[in-house]
Prior knowledge:
Blueprint: E1 5-10, H1 16-28, E2 32-36, E3 47-49, E4 53-60, H2 70-75, E5 77-79, E6 82-90, H3 98-108, E7 111-120, H4 136-155, E8 184-185, H5 194-198, H6 222-226, E9 232-233, H7 237-249, E10 257-259
Parallel strand pairs: 1-2, 1-4, 3-5, 4-6, 6-7
Antiparallel strand pairs: 7-10, 8-9
Amino acid sequence: MKISRINLLYFSATGVTKKCVLKIAEGIGMDAYDYDLTLYKARKQKYTFNSDDLVIIGMPVYRGRIPSIADDFFAAVTAENAPAVFVVSYGNREYDNALLELKDRSEEKGFVGIAAAAFIGEHSSSNLIATGRPDAEDQIKLFDFGRQIKEKVAMLTDLEELTELKVKGMRPYGQDFVNRAAPATNENCDDCGICIQNCPTLAINPENVREVKVEKCISCRRCIHLCPQGAKFIADSHSINFITELVKKASMRKEPEIFI
């Protein structure tokens, strides 16, 4: 099967998913076109892929689901039998039904799954969970996954040869995550506006960076990670308790799962 180019199509609020798809592309060994749909304005453009494209589609896992921006994400995308690799990254708890959800949503848009994987990355809510991952060991596995994809594509003459790609997960995917608290802002804030420019859902008031609309916030923690002053933080007691318990429960190292 001839592939004319590799495309990276992803949402990556804290950069973990981006690291994963980049390393997979490196393993495939071809230059890749980068389509980062993290920012709101990027999801308002249109992206089209066909059978000559190999598309690596990546998303993080939030409470066992893909992010709620998925509607915007897939509304921007059209595919015509484009071979695809589905990748989720998660913070060492579980990825639950997220990989299946990503596969289903992608195939509804005209992608044809040839491989999938779930990789572990440092948790967006605490650097005490999966610290520094994907680490050196993960990087080797990501690169090797890319090599396996390259070998599979080389052996295919047509997508019709493929049997349906099977991944872990169940339908229905589970309850939609409803965010009940947004990041707070402390006195370190100097109104630089970096959080406004980088919020994936336009949840931060451009007239007042201390005001975050909880109904728009998806709890991605991007503003916390990018703030140069450390001014954004989690203040909600429920969220703090959840993270404290997660640190205890998600301490054992999990390993990537690959479906090819």
